[in-house]
Specification:
- InterPro entries: FAD/NAD-bd_sf, FAD/NAD-binding_dom, Fd--NADP_Rdtase_type_2, Ferredoxin-NADP_redctase_2.
- Its cofactor is FAD.
- Belongs to the ferredoxin--NADP reductase type 2 family.
- It catalyses: 2 reduced [2Fe-2S]-[ferredoxin] + NADP(+) + H(+) = 2 oxidized [2Fe-2S]-[ferredoxin] + NADPH.
- With about 350 residues, the protein is of the alpha/beta class.
- The chain folds into 2 domains: about 210 residues, FAD/NAD(P)-binding domain, CATH 3.50.50; about 120 residues, FAD/NAD(P)-binding domain.
- It is about 25% helix and about 30% strand.
- A hairpin with a 4-residue loop joins strand 8 and strand 9.
- The radius of gyration is 23 Å and the shape is elongated.
Length: about 350
């Protein structure tokens, strides 16, 4: 993983390389607004995120917590902010590549960048925008014997869609709001739903806890207090989970689908190997352009450092705007016009604004 010139490595994936003008790494609020600002400049962008959904840290850590310092919005939750940003970029039709991390970044002979992901996807892009917050937020892995041998559809981390649970014996493992919500959803379609946590206390909204209790009382959800110690499989197919209760006794539990919600943690991952200038694990950028030490690569949000930098969402929105204008000048060879969404017919066309 270097910044030296490289020819496209098509062996990374059987998929053809995605050709684009801009690639945004990170689909949190900063990344979403970066894609919006690029769209206003007429620059098509693609989004990548390690999580299986957009929102990043804002969704995972502040999903239901109030935010009071977004301009024009007196108060909103993290999830509400993400929903608003998602609605805002809808006219741009930004392609998303979720549930995968960027693992390689190489300079190509023609001045573009080749980016490879953990899903085997390759991108050829003229510009890269790193909006990775404090790193890629990745699900905490279940670390028990034989778990690595499970087939991909037997063990899922933080899945957003739960159709695969229909008719199956499902174990939801975790105690946060996502785990409780998943168990409630699975209870209506799964053959059997078990929710397991190390203690009989769950961190969720009161309405969810009330619903969980109703389903427990009716027998639709079985709650087990303990921890998984081993998974048992045959040819990659999950058969049984062994778990330990609070007294140290182990028990077998037939399971066909294991949904794990152990939280997420930030990891800088391969970013530190890309040869970009860093200071205390943060990317050094020019505050006027948000350019990093490599031509065509920009960075915004909590991952960056410059004199006076403040780690606030509204500061990242400003940085996204400055980076988009700088990238437009880099790509087009001239400074872009400063246009206003209130009056510009071109911007109205991009946004799908009707004048009828």
């Amino acid at each position: 993983m270097s910044l030296s010139n490289a020819t496209p490595n098509t062996s990374l994936s059987q998929q053809p390389a995605v050709e684009t003008d801009a690639l945004v790494i990170g689909a949190g609020p900063a990344g979403l607004f970066q894609a919006f600002q690029l769209g206003l400049q007429g620059i098509q962008a693609h989004l990548i995120d390690a999580l299986p959904h957009i929102g990043g840290q804002c969704s995972q850590l502040y999903g239901h917590k109030p935010i009071y310092d977004i301009p024009g919005i007196p108060v909103c939750t993290g999830l509400e902010l993400v929903q608003l940003l998602d609605k805002q970029i809808a006219p741009m039709k930004v392609p998303r590549h979720l549930g995968q991390q960027v693992q390689s970044l190489e300079a190509m002979a023609d001045g573009r960048w080749q980016v490879g992901t953990t899903a085997g996807q390759t991108f050829h892009t003229r510009t890269v925008f790193i909006a990775a917050g404090v790193g890629a937020f990745v699900p905490k892995a279940l670390k028990v014997p034989s778990v690595e041998a499970l087939a991909a559809d037997q063990l899922l981390y933080h899945p957003q869609q739960l159709e695969m649970a229909a008719g199956r014996q499902v174990l939801v493992y975790g105690g946060d709001e996502e785990a409780v919500s998943a168990a409630i959803v699975c209870a209506s379609t799964a053959g059997k739903t078990v929710l397991m946590h190390r203690r009989d206390s769950f961190n969720a909204e009161p309405a969810q806890l009330d619903k969980l209790q109703q389903l427990r009382d009716s027998g639709a959800i079985e709650v087990l207090i303990g921890q998984i110690t081993e998974v048992q499989q045959e040819n990659g197919q999950l058969k049984t989970v062994r778990w330990m209760d609070g007294e140290g006794n182990e028990h077998p539990l037939p399971v066909e689908l294991l949904l794990v919600y152990l939280g997420i943690s930030p990891k800088l991952g391969s970013l530190t190997d890309w040869g970009l200038a860093l200071e205390r694990k943060q990317l050094l950028v020019d505050p006027a352009t948000l350019a990093t030490s490599a031509q065509g690569i920009y960075a915004i949000g909590d991952i960056i450092h410059y004199p006076g930098k403040k780690r606030l969402i509204l500061c990242a929105f400003h940085e996204a705007t400055m980076a988009a204008f700088a990238a437009a000048e880099y790509l087009q060879g001239s400074k872009p016009l400063l246009e206003y969404t209130t009056t510009s017919a071109r911007l109205h066309g991009i946004l799908g604004v009707s004048h009828a």
